[in-house]
Amino acid sequence: MTTIAVMGAGSWGSTLASVFADAGNDVVIWARSQSIVDEVNESHTNHAYQPGLTLPASVMATADARQALAAAELVVLAIPAQSLRANLGEWGSQIPATAIVLSLMKGIELSTGLRITQVVHEVAGVPFERLAVLSGPNLADEIAHGEPAATTVAAYDEHVAELVQRCCTTARFRPYTSTDVLGTEIVGAAKNVVALAAGIAIGLGFGENAQAALITRGLAEIARLGVALGANPVTFSGLAGMGDLVATCGSPLSRNRTFGVHLGQGRSVDEATSLAKGVCEGVPTSRALLELAHAHNVEMPITEQMVEVLYHELAPSTMLQRFMGREVKSEN
């Protein structure tokens, strides 16, 4: 049994807390809201973020980060990517020196262009060999309802990946290990941007052909960037790559896809943000990703057009016209 602190009480953090508990671990959730803490401890639910989930009775919650982290052997980060640095500034120094830190977060820090594990290393001083990420086709609502799923656990140290794998293996949740942290983080962040574009296509009324084209070409530009940064190309055809991209672009449960649908239906970015009722990581990630691509001379046309829509008031229909009107070339 491993003592696990899940830092963040959102939909995905709460759902994974349940998976960790089902796997036989001792789990505590840290939440800022005392009302959520009380609900988890008294009713074993979190209706604000995951109404379909009944948490195991063994899962407890606290609003005291120091208390949550005190005995943690595995610290799980489940907060919005753009708020990570500020959160670590508050309680990062309390992470036990021997704890493994696992990121469930999918984003690139806008102010620095750093990946999540790089931010944790820089701010909290956690050695890279104790850092890991979990990423795959994991729609929280489906897992909360007990539907089977698989995922990737990537760590700089293979033994760390295997330890995390053991902590979250259940009859309905199957993790596979990897040592390609860079590739797993890049595709986990970038797939949200492609999902925004896929959602726009749906909102505009386009069919499966258009959506399949966006997903496929989206993966191509993600892989170009990942390989340029040093990722393993195999990662992009696996669970953390194609698997997560298909789930995020294809499911109405995906917040980023839904955000894109609202844009395609004619709503403004502000209106879509209000309707999303949660953080759409693809929005800030699009800018950070494009800056990273420019820094490494990588062409990412879908990402580029999404930035135009989100930040420069380009009409979604014009975005797709620009994409379709690009100079034709070889697929390879």
Explain the overall architecture:
This protein is α/β, with parallel strands linked by helices and 332 residues long. The protein has two domains: 3-179, Rossmann fold (3-Layer(aba) Sandwich); 182-324, N-(1-d-carboxylethyl)-l-norvaline Dehydrogenase, domain 2 (Orthogonal Bundle), CATH 1.10.1040.10. It is built from 15 helices and ten strands. The protein has helices at 11-22, 34-43, 65-69, 84-91, 116-124, 140-144, 158-167, 181-203, 208-229, 239-250, 255-264, 269-276, 282-295, 301-312, 316-324, and strands spanning 3-7, 26-30, 45-46, 50-54, 60-62, 74-77, 100-103, 131-135, 149-155, 173-178. The strands form two sheets. An eight-stranded mixed β-sheet has the order 5-2-1-6-7-8-9-10, with helices on both faces. Strands 3-4 form a two-stranded antiparallel ribbon. Strand 7 (100-103), helix 5 and strand 8 form a beta-alpha-beta unit. The longest helix is centred in the middle third of the chain and has 23 residues, at 181-203.
Note the topology.
Blueprint: E1 3-7, H1 11-22, E2 26-30, H2 34-43, E3 45-46, E4 50-54, E5 60-62, H3 65-69, E6 74-77, H4 84-91, E7 100-103, H5 116-124, E8 131-135, H6 140-144, E9 149-155, H7 158-167, E10 173-178, H8 181-203, H9 208-229, H10 239-250, H11 255-264, H12 269-276, H13 282-295, H14 301-312, H15 316-324
Parallel strand pairs: 1-2, 1-6, 2-5, 6-7, 7-8, 9-10
Antiparallel strand pairs: 3-4, 8-9
